[in-house]
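So, read this over?
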Amino acid sequence: MDALGALIVLGMMIIVNIDVFGRWLFDSPLAGTFELTEMGIVAVVYLQLAHTIRVKRLTRSDTFLNFLARVRGKAADQSLRLVFNLAGTLMLGIIAYGQFPRLIDAWSRGYYKGNVGIFTAPTWPLEGIMFVGAVAAAIQFLLLAARNAKALRGG
């Protein structure tokens, strides 16, 4: 998923450059550039979220956690990390739960982005990526929570 996200970034870079050079050289923009980059950015976030969580690079402030670990010890630190990871599991689970009906709706009704006759793109692939990404991120948070629980038990 992480590599696919990187390929989408590369694709967006190519599309934007073609659009810019098309406007500059031929006074003709590439149809759909805005829609594709808009959808691509969201797709990249959801595709790379689970990997970001896995390698512990999700943006957060560890200052308080580090202070707590020094003052109260490793058990307090692991307990707070367990709570954080369980909260992440819950939040991403809620996102996935809410996303699934949107995916089904986009698939069955044929929703699209863009303007008919100029450029249209179906939205179901993006809705699917968002669903899969949220599920994968929730699972990753759950795995980290399990590691925290194991560390608390002394394992």
